[in-house]
Amino acid sequence: MSLVIEFLGFSPKAFKFLEELTSNQNRVWFSEHRSEYEDFVREPMKHFTDALSENLTKKDVPLWGDPKRSLFRINRDARFSKAKHPYNMHASGLFTRTGDKHSPGVLYFRLDPLGSRCAAGYMQPEAHILKKLRQGILDNPKAWLSLEKSLKRKGYDLDYTHTLARIPRGFADVPKEIESAIKLKGWIIRKQLPRSIVCSKDLIKQVSSFATDMLPLLSFGWHALAKFSD
After folding, report:
1. In the chain, what percentage of residues exceed pLDDT 90?
2. Could you read off the pLDDT of 123-171 as tens digits, one per residue?
3. What's the rounded Cα separation, in Å, for the pair 170 and 173?
4. 76-111: buried (b, 16+ CB within 10 Å) or exposed (e) per residue?
5. How many CB atoms lie within 10 A of CB 132?
6. d(Cα 17, Cα 90) in Å, to the nearest integer?
7. CATH architecture for segment(s) 12-227
8. To pair with 141 at 20 to 30 A between CA atoms, which of 34, 63, 67, 151?
């Protein structure tokens, strides 16, 4: 008999730690409070990853996370960033078909004192991936428009803030109704998660439900990537 993994939500102390870390971006403070990070953020994130993965499997959503590979580190690589603070002020992870962060088509979770959320889609895809996603839309515009309408009926809107000014090179005779979709630099849908939910046993249910709703969007992309594979 398989073991059921139960996750009862994050402790409010996780938010307290991240809030204090925001005001104490130095290695001395972090070293002195590392046990709080491990107890209230890192270990619960691992537990959450396992519990959500199990729940997604039950719902036939082909996404899962590996506590060792799917979570982002608290330490920032600030070499190429104007912001030089050494630590992330949130905790996050990705769930994919392979459990690897680099697999296209993701479910994202972010524990953040400024506003926790989940998101899904194709975020900042590499050029060759994005080209195939666009080809998928152009190949079946009716299916894409139907997908967008279905998502809207469920209360979800694609983020259209990151788009090209013009139709990308290599795409001709694009129907007017999908021009804006072809210009997208990625497919992203987000859902805000109130702190009351994040700190409750309903968190797994809420994120799993969101993932189920996002499966048609992810599947549309996976189909395009398979069809237009090199």
Report:
1. 90
2. 999 999 999 999 999 999 999 999 999 999 999 999 999 999 999 999 9
3. 10
4. beeeeeeeeeebbbbbbbbbbeebebeebbbbbbbb
5. 21
6. 10
7. 2-Layer Sandwich (3.30)
8. 63
Residue with tokens 């993994």: 5
The amino acid occupying position 20 is E
The whole-number pLDDT of residue 1 equals 39
Residue 74 contacts residue 91 (beta carbons within 8 Å): yes
pTM, to two decimals: 0.94
Which position has the token pair 């409750």? 200
Tell me the two tokens of residue 149: 């309408």
Q: Please list the helix, strand and coil fractions of the chain in percent, rounded to the nearest 5, in that order.
A: 45, 15, 40
114 has pLDDT over 60: yes
Instruction: Give the largest Cα separation in the chain, rounded.
Output: 61
Residue labelled with tokens 């608290």: 74
Question: Residue 56 pLDDT > 50, yes or no?
Answer: yes
